[in-house]
Design goal:
Blueprint: H1 2-14, E1 19-20, H2 30-41, H3 58-74, E2 81-86, H4 89-101, E3 107-112, H5 115-127, E4 129-135, E5 156-160, E6 162-163, E7 168-169, E8 179-182, E9 199-203, E10 214-219, H6 236-241, H7 251-267, H8 269-290, E11 294-296, E12 307-312, H9 318-327, E13 330-331, E14 342-345, H10 352-369
Parallel strand pairs: 1-13, 3-4, 3-5, 5-8, 8-9
Antiparallel strand pairs: 2-10, 6-7, 9-10, 11-12, 12-14
The structure holds pyridoxal-5'-phosphate.
Residues 24, 89-91, 116, 160, 164, 182, 184-185, 203, 206 line the site of pyridoxal-5'-phosphate.
């Protein structure tokens, strides 16, 4: 085993250091990748790969248990909550949430803050009464709506904590009797009291692991209130009852999520990473505001600490900036295909040093072309 680990470590050492600003799947800690690589060959010293053993083996059951416990701890949840790891991505949750929570004759409320919220609304409308209580579509989703009325009769209010594509983030969550949140792109990036929510979901691949698993944490008392006949695979209660092993779970994604959450906890948890994430975002936004060639695209008070979106005042210079970025080993900076411009994703595993390299490139670029 020793030689296997050192081979992996040596491989990492000889690789060119790339600053990975990818929006998703996103950057993971190097030591997590190392441990994941190891487990693909020899998991828990079983002389078998994690990828070729039963999900019902003792060793894997321990992974599932620890992953769920870490989620609860890092979201400050108590035992009234159940954690699941499901397939189908965050996108399947757009359907599963109303399917499990929206009653016949009831109404679900949604705040529309971008592409993902729009997709969630589309699914909810297919299942029951759906009301968009607020939207920022009027200004291309460049801000977070505030001060809107929330009907007290809603079965739940659905919000998106961080809008990965547009680069806005909810800083203060609305108060609703039952709050549901898509936290796919900022889960575990800051301290959040999960007990304020009925349900939280997040695809693993933005800030906690590789694609495949989606984490769902739900206050159990909100379930079982709908009358529709429930398809087994879409029924939270069946997944809870079976400990997320009603069918074969996405074992690798869950395992790497566990490693990432261990890494986070070991280093000081969400309070620790929140400070670093703030520092990274402050550093980059300060440069965007200072640099004469770049402009931020979102309202300042709603700026995301995870996905920083900006455009160039002379778009014809974009190829020049791309060249400079490439030569400095900056990767994944291009904006979403629907939005254009640039997007730097500053997920938990991205070091401050990478942001500093980006800022230096932006400064160089200004000196050359302004
Ligand atoms: C990426 C993303 C999704 C979609 O996730 P999938 O796992 O690809 O279905 C949903 N919501 C948000 C906020 C996202 O960033």
């Amino acid at each position: 085993m020793e030689t296997l680990i050192s081979t992996i470590k040596n491989q990492q050492k000889t690789m060119t250091k790339v600053h990975n600003f990818s929006a998703g799947p996103g950057i993971l800690p190097q030591e997590v990748l190392q441990q994941a690589a190891e487990a693909c060959i020899n998991f828990d010293n079983l002389n078998l790969s994690l990828l070729e053993i039963s999900h019902r083996s003792k060793n894997y059951e321990a992974v599932m248990e620890e992953s769920m416990a870490l989620v609860k701890e890092l979201l400050y949840l108590d035992d009234s909550y159940k954690v699941m790891f499901l397939g189908g991505g965050a996108s399947l949750q757009f359907a599963m949430v109303p399917y499990n929570l929206l009653r016949d004759g009831g109404t679900a409320g949604y705040v529309n803050t971008g592409v993902w919220a729009t997709k969630a609304i589309k699914e909810s409308k297919l299942i029951g009464n759906t009301q968009v209580v607020a939207s920022s579509e009027d200004k291309k989703f460049s801000y977070i709506p505030k001060g809107y009325g929330i009907p007290t009769t809603l079965d739940y209010l659905h919000v998106t904590s961080n809008n990965t594509i547009y680069g806005t983030q909810i800083k203060k969550f609305p108060t609703a009797a039952s709050l549901v949140c898509d936290m796919s792109s900022d889960i575990f990036s800051r301290k959040v009291d999960g007990k304020k929510f009925s349900l939280i979901y997040a695809g693993a691949q933005k800030n906690m692991g590789p694609a495949g698993a989606t984490m769902v944490a739900v206050r159990e008392s909100v379930l079982g209130k709908v009358n529709r006949p429930m398809l087994s695979m879409l029924d939270y209660r069946i997944h809870i009852k079976n400990g997320s092993m009603y069918n074969t779970p996405p074992v690798f994604s869950i395992y790497v999520t566990m490693l990432t959450l261990r890494w986070l906890k070991k280093n000081g948890g969400v309070e620790w990473i929140e400070k670093i994430n703030q520092q990274k975002a402050d550093t980059l936004y300060a440069e965007i505001d200072r640099n004469s060639l770049f402009t931020g695209t979102t309202a300042k008070e709603d700026r995301s600490n995870m996905n920083v979106t900006f455009v160039m005042s002379k778009p014809e210079l974009e190829p020049e900036f791309d060249k400079l970025a490439k030569s400095a080993n900056l990767s994944g900076l291009r904006g979403h295909r629907d939005v254009g411009g640039y997007r730097a994703s500053l997920y938990n595993a991205l070091p401050l040093e990478s942001v500093q390299v980006l800022v230096d490139v932006m400064k160089d670029f200004e000196k050359k072309f302004a």
